[in-house]
Design a protein that fits this description.
This protein is an alpha+beta fold. The protein has 13 helices and ten strands.
């Protein structure tokens, strides 16, 4: 039976979470006035992404030229060979030695993920999912777990408004102020691992951190130079728009680079970019979430009326408030999972084991939702934890 409707009634995050949780195989068609995107799932994982209305600049050949991986002449020659032989562009470029098979696949992966994350900026459109067999493709991307895409999408919701305050024009160029420090060696420390379980930010990850130098910052710093504006850095760093802009902001905050004058004082010419379109919409959402969450926190502190043990999940009917509160609760559950792993040597099969171990109360596995958090153990040290499908 087909699943279909409008994105106003059932958002892209809910759709991906539903397909991922039920491990469906089939094709999801998404369309709005300007674009049409098809996502192919296999056992709940994203196996292929196709944009029917992809602009010329987003075609894989144009991406390779802008990234300075191949030249315009090499692309023209490959396209001519493709027309004569009907071979795939990737096969032609690899056989000619213009690019390695591994590098081409990584660029295909980048193209797919950028297409998916732009879907989170859609505020209107239609969707239709058809359960049907999905064939294996030699040029297919490495399968993406729907849960991972959701977590990355939620991270962008949180961080784009911060990024766009300084990285808000594609024409901005940068100049270096000082060299980066040498990378520090990672050492395994039991005490540090225990501390990380309760830390607000993971020390071994750069996600959600705006004050550290990681691999992304080093990659972007190496590409900063005269005449290279934000758009050019996004193209040649091959990290994606969000990661590149976040790395630029980190480098500015740490005073390794500074913005130099941008060409012209007008607005950017590409209004469909994630910086303007996604950042503007998600910025308003995050501001509302923060304000509502702050109000709820103050009320809880003054009246003592809100508690994990006594407040039913239905008290919070505003989705933004629920999302805001849920982030803190996810941190609490993650900390309990890490303690469980340190004590038992592996993660639990189900969240209920945290209650049995005395680490959490039953209501803490649902607060502020009616249903329990979605949890899946992937390996001894890896797991997926998401809010329940609402």
């Amino acid at each position: 039976m087909a699943l279909q409707g409008t994105l106003k009634d059932f958002g892209i995050a809910d759709i991906l979470q539903l397909i991922g949780q039920q491990q469906k195989t089939g094709q999801l068609c998404l369309a709005n006035k300007e674009q049409e995107v098809n996502i192919f799932f296999k056992d709940g994982n994203i196996a292929r992404v196709e944009s029917v209305t992809r602009k010329k600049k987003d075609l894989i050949g144009s991406m390779l030229v802008r990234a300075e991986i191949i030249t315009e002449a090499q692309l023209d020659e490959a396209l001519e060979t493709q027309r004569r032989t009907l071979k795939r562009l990737g096969d032609v470029l690899v056989s000619s030695g213009a690019i390695t098979a591994d590098r081409f696949k990584k660029m295909m992966q980048l193209q797919a993920t950028e297409t998916i994350y732009r879907l989170f900026s859609w505020d209107a459109g239609t969707y239709e999912f058809k359960a049907e067999p999905v064939e294996n493709d030699s040029e297919a991307i490495t399968p993406l777990r729907a849960e991972s895409v959701l977590m990355e999408g939620f991270r962008m919701v949180d961080e784009w408004p911060v990024i766009r305050k300084k990285i808000n024009r594609y024409e901005t160029t940068f100049e270096t102020l000082k060299p980066l420090p040498p990378p520090r060696k990672q050492e395994v420390d039991f005490d540090a691992a225990f501390d990380d379980a309760f830390a607000e930010k993971k020390k071994d990850e750069n996600k959600g951190d705006f004050a550290s130098v990681g691999d992304s910052e080093r990659a972007v710093y190496e590409k900063v130079g005269p005449g290279r504006d934000v758009r050019k850095l996004i193209d040649i760093c091959c990290l994606g728009e969000f990661e590149t802009c976040k790395a630029l902001l980190n480098l500015i905050n740490l005073q390794y680079i500074k913005p130099s004058s941008a060409d012209g004082a007008g607005t950017t010419t590409e209004r469909n970019g994630v910086i303007q379109k996604v950042g503007r919409g998600l910025g308003n959402l995050s501001a509302s979430m923060a304000a509502l969450g702050a109000i709820l926190f103050v009320v809880a502190q003054l009246s003592g009326a809100i508690s994990l043990a006594s407040t039913p999940a239905s008290t919070f009917s505003d989705p933004a408030a629920e999302r805001f509160i849920s982030r803190a609760q996810v941190k609490r559950i993650e900390a309990a999972l890490e303690v469980f792993r340190l004590e038992r040597g592996e993660l639990p099969e189900k969240l209920d084991a945290l209650v049995e171990a005395g680490l959490l109360k039953p209501e803490e596995l649902r607060y502020p939702w009616r249903e329990q958090y979605y949890y899946r153990r992937l390996a001894a040290r890896e797991f997926v934890l998401l809010p329940p499908l609402q």
